[in-house]
Design a protein that fits this description.
This protein has one domain. It is 70% helix and 0% strand. The chain is built from five helices and no strands. α1 packs across α2. The termini are far apart. The relative contact order is 0.16.
Length: 91
């Protein structure tokens, strides 16, 4: 499950219903952001998962949770460009 995977990445080992709702919301925002950036529908779960996009999603949530999304864009601009190029070349 994606939520559990993100919680593991963030070292969240406790159960917190309100925290899980917030993380789920951040995950959905991150998925939309990354799909928009790539210009394609990305898979974050299942057999055809894009592992690069999944890593970016986990990092996105970490930055969003810290209210530092502007830093995410700056620090991961090369990775976001590579993601965009990967999917734009498939068109």
């Amino acid at each position: 499950m994606l939520l559990e995977d993100v919680k593991n990445h963030l070292d969240i080992t406790w159960d917190d219903e309100a925290g899980d709702r917030k993380l789920s919301s951040l995950i959905e925002s991150g998925k939309l952001y990354l799909c928009r950036t790539a210009g394609a529908e990305l898979l974050f779960e299942g057999d055809d998962v894009d592992h690069g996009a999944l890593i970016l999603l986990k990092v996105y949530v970490m930055y969003a949770r810290s209210n530092a999304l502007d830093e995410f864009g700056k620090r991961y601009s090369d990775d976001l460009s590579a993601l965009r190029e990967k999917y734009q070349s498939k068109l």
